[in-house]
Amino acid sequence: MTSSAASFHNLPDLAARLLGGSVIWANDEFFAARQNLISPGDADFAKGTFSHTGQVYDGWETRRRRDHGGHDSAIVRLGAPGVVYGVVVDTSWFKGNYPTEISVEGARVPGYPDVDDVLAAEWTELVPRTTASGDTKN
Questions:
Q1: Measured by CB atoms within 10 angstroms of the end CB, which terminus of the chain is less buried, N or C?
Q2: Global model pTM greater than 0.85
Q3: Up-side HSE of residue 40: CA atoms within 13 Å toward CB?
Q4: What is the DSSP letter of 78?
Q5: Residue pair 66/72 in contact by the 8 Å Cβ criterion
Q6: In Å, how far from its chain's centre is CA 112?
């Protein structure tokens, strides 16, 4: 493996639904479903497509209530065990309503635990708080 920052793009997507990946928890799903976080392929946008909560996007969008320690959060259960070499946070189509910062933590929880066990696990920082841009792959 090379030390190139982009080298992880050639590795398997451990969160892929085909492997059994899922988004098991999110603090809010008012505007868009949490499962959109692991949808395969590039995000799409169809202008004028609305649901009961507003414009439909391929991404996960919250009300940004900030009631969980000052940030929105979601938990992605990987579909296969492995080492995380990189994470893409794609803000495509989110031009004014994207997060200004992102961070990623990981936890190893054996078996198939419930959400409460995962929330109570010991978490390790994988990506420190980092500035994010809108309408791009961060």
A1: N
A2: no
A3: 9
A4: P
A5: yes
A6: 20
All residues at 6 or more sequence positions from 129 whose CB lies less than 8 Å from its CB, including other chains: 101, 102, 103
The 3-state DSSP class for residue 57 equals coil
- Six token digits for residue 138: 């961060």
Burial of 32 per CB tally in 10 Å (0-12, 13-18, 19+):
buried
CB–CB of 107/39 below 8 Å?
no
Q: Tell me which residue has tokens 């793009």.
A: 9
pLDDT tens readout for residues 40-59 = 888 777 888 887 777 777 77
Query: For residues 130 and 128, what is the distance between their CA atoms, to the nearest angstrom?
Result: 6
What percentage of the chain exceeds 90 in pLDDT? Answer: 46
Measured distance CA(50)–CA(52) in Å, rounded: 7
